[in-house]
Amino acid sequence: MRISYSSLETYKQCPQKYKFQEIDKRKAPKTKEAIFGTAIHSALQFMFSRDPLFPTLSEVVEHFRDKFMEKCLLPEADAARYCDVGEKMLANFYKKNPPWNFNVIDLESHFEVAVVDEIYNVSHTLAGKIDRIDKLSDGSYEIIDYKTNRRLPSQNDTDKNQQLAVYQLGIKKRWPHVDPSKVKLSLYFLRAEEKISTFRSPEALAHAENEILSQVRIIEEKTQENDFPPVPSALCDWCGYKPICPAWRHLYEKEKKPEIQSAINEFLELKREIDERKKKLISLASIVREYMQIEKLERVFGDMGSILQSRQERASWDSEKVREILSGSNILDSVMTVDPQKLSFIVRSLPDEIQEKLKKEARTVKTFVVLKVSRKKEKAPE
Ligand code: SF4
């Protein structure tokens, strides 16, 4: 199977999007953010390509504008707004990172390496593209990925970032002689003008490789079952497949069936009414419960019937504690695979002292007061 960081990320975000993109190979129109990102990346690649001199800032900005305007179909005012943001980003970057200060050894560097799944004895191809690779003055390397988004991750998130791990795996397989501790991995956030860097130990890299392989196994299994559910989220607004996605397509249908529309609308109205009534019921129950508590009443009466207080207990179990107390006993497996209600029954068959220990240390019991209603029977006509 051929995989890349972006395909793994797409699967994590939404399996249906992954299917459109990687299996059905359906082309989706690029969003304006994607066009903007591509134009910025292209301008940064141009900025570090010496021919024979490095381009000036205005040449870099012009390159960005050309690339962006070539693909964007936005109204003039919106396009101008994007151009302004891009220009500012590039100007700040250029000022802080004059290209002649860096020893760039590769740009938009493609890699394709084999990753072997020893459990299933299959080999997968891990492919990707690194924005920039620098050789630093101490002989080490720096892998840089540019980001145009606003959100700045924490150092901890960067240390676990899968994209950077994929890039380092690419470098490791391509240049096995390079010591992983001599490869600095950086994310450069252009809007915030911040660079966050990390390193990966050989153990962390092996862990990342295992994680990738287990994700690939899941994807392969789901491919066999053709199981790619859509996962609607805020990110759908940036998904080019929205008009054909089963979670959104109906919204885009021009001719909707009137009888189905009326059933949908009636359902929604009924659901709203039920929800409102449920809310009202909760608020009335709390008034009645409070009154009964203050007046120390167990039953109250209305015109249509009575309301009786009844107490119910619900137990929940701390699975770690249960495991600890029962470790070594032959019922541990059956206990840990049943649900909490069944667990309460099983516990009753245990020796008294274990029962006591479990109840004391691993069980939490909450008592609920339930109001039970009995309605007045209609009187038979005389
Ligand atoms: S629109 Fe949303 S739910 Fe549909 S494929 Fe795209 S990301 Fe998934």
UniProtKB/TrEMBL annotation:
It comes from the Bacteria. SUPFAM superfamilies: Restriction endonuclease-like. Residues 2-246 form the PD-(D/E)XK endonuclease-like domain. InterPro entries: PDDEXK-like_dom_sf, PDDEXK_AddAB-type, Restrct_endonuc-II-like. Transmembrane segments: none annotated. Coiled coil: none annotated. This is PD-(D/E)XK endonuclease-like domain-containing protein.
